[in-house]
Every structure is written in structure tokens, then in C-alpha cells.
Specification:
The chain contains three helices and five strands, in the order ααββαβββ. It is an alpha+beta fold and 79 residues long.
């Protein structure tokens, strides 16, 4: 994974597009240009990644908070 390319592509990902994933865990394509899988439950995201034809250990997974949520450094959510 080219981390510079990933960061550039991820930063250019539309906020409007991310709204569809609010409250979900998302798996980013290796280059950061697309979301290849998503799920509300972080325990199921690996199965979704595998179903999309990817190796879960090769992708970055992140959480997209709801508009009115703040995600703290430790992963806690404050509403």
C-alpha cells in the first residue's frame, strides 16, 4: 500500500459520499479511492470484505460517525 497515495485519495473522497456510511465501519480500497465494504457491526466487516474479494488484513477499516457524533481518540463516541 502506498500510504501517500492512499492519504491523497482518501482526503479527496467526497463528504457527500461519506454521508451514506454514517454510523458504519468502512473498508477502504488499497489506494483509498473507494469504499469496498461497510457494516454497522465491526465484527461483521471482515466477512463483508472477504465477500467483496479482498483480504481483510490488506485494507484499512475506519468508522464514519453520524453527523452529530464526536469520536474521541480512544474510540469513544460522545453525542
Amino acid at each position: 500500500m502506498n500510504t501517500e497515495q492512499f492519504a491523497r485519495n482518501r482526503a479527496n473522497f467526497s463528504a457527500h459520499e461519506l454521508e451514506k456510511y454514517a454510523g458504519k465501519y468502512v473498508a477502504w480500497s488499497p489506494d483509498g479511492s473507494a469504499i469496498v465494504a461497510s457494516d454497522e457491526d465491526e465484527r461483521r466487516i471482515d466477512a463483508r470484505i472477504k465477500a467483496a474479494g479482498y483480504d481483510p488484513s490488506a485494507l484499512l477499516v475506519s468508522f464514519i460517525p453520524q453527523e452529530d457524533e464526536v469520536v474521541l481518540g480512544g474510540g469513544g463516541i460522545v453525542e
